[in-house]
Amino acid sequence: MTTKAATSATPDRPAPGKAAGGDAARTAQLRAANINPRTGLATDYLNHFNEAIMLLEMVPEMPECAEDFLAWQPLSYAEHFTASNFRARDLAISAYNSADPKIRAEFDNITSAMTSILTAVGDAMRKVTQDKTRATLADQATGWVKPLVMLAGGIINGDREADVDYIMTH
Questions:
Q1: Domain-embedded: residue 76
Q2: What's the rounded Cα separation, in Å, for the pair 155 and 68?
Q3: Phi/psi at 60 (nearest 5 deg)?
Q4: Tens digit of each residue's pLDDT (9 = 90 or more) over 11-59
Q5: Which H or E run contains 103?
Q6: Residue 127: exposed, middle, or buried by beta-carbon count in 10 A (0-12, 13-18, 19+)?
Q7: How many CB atoms lie within 10 A of CB 161?
Q8: Within a domain: residue 120?
Q9: Which residues contact 111 (CB under 8 A, 6 or more apart)?
Q10: In total, how many domains does the chain have?
Q11: How many CA atoms lie within 13 A of 61 on its CB side?
Q12: What is the C-alpha separation between 93 and 77, in angstroms, rounded?
């Protein structure tokens, strides 16, 4: 995964939903593209991780799916949108780059943790030959990554506290 330098909001570069003069058109544009105007983040990026989770969930019943999971490659937020067919990919990248640095750092820390887990599990799966061992690794990884996807979704949607409370009680 590559790290791209991101620019923060400045007086001449307003935050995603806080365009100069309270630009309602910018907020509407972000909403129409399924980008949260308050955070500047889009849930579409989580599809990248949900794909890996889906493949991992299939490994215990269909061991051949491990090979599909092993083909999964980590992508940064910008890389994901650049490679996607997301209709507003340039807007998504721009909004991410303009997002509040604290929100973006919290989000990036969680997505980095998910990437680290999935990469480590992939490395471990490449070293083992037993389907049962791969199934165990897949189950463990799924249990670790799913709550992080929920937490990342909470950050994207601006409701982190509710998601943290839910994760801690379940």
A1: yes
A2: 29
A3: -60, -35
A4: 434 455 444 445 888 899 999 999 999 999 999 999 999 999 999 999 9
A5: helix 101-127
A6: exposed
A7: 9
A8: yes
A9: 45, 49, 77, 152
A10: 1
A11: 4
A12: 8
Whole-number Å distance between alpha carbons of 135 and 74: 21
- Phi (first) and psi of residue 2, to 5 degrees: -95, 155
pLDDT tens-digit readout, 128-166: 999 999 999 999 999 999 999 999 999 999 975 544 554
Degrees to nearest 5, angle at CA 77 with 42 and 122: 120
Q: Which residue has the tokens 């092993």?
A: 70
Q: How far apart are CA 51 and CA 156, in angstroms?
A: 18
Domain around 49: 41-169
Which of 14, 5, 154, 150 shows the shortest CA–CA distance to 77?
A: 5
CA distance 131 to 133: 5
- Residue 84 — left, alpha, or beta (φ > 0 → left; ψ -120 to 50 → alpha)? beta
- Strand, coil or helix: 72: coil
Report if residue 113 sits inside a domain. Answer: yes
pLDDT given for residue 159 in this prediction: 79
Where do we find the tokens 């590559």? 2
In a domain, residue 96? The reply is: yes
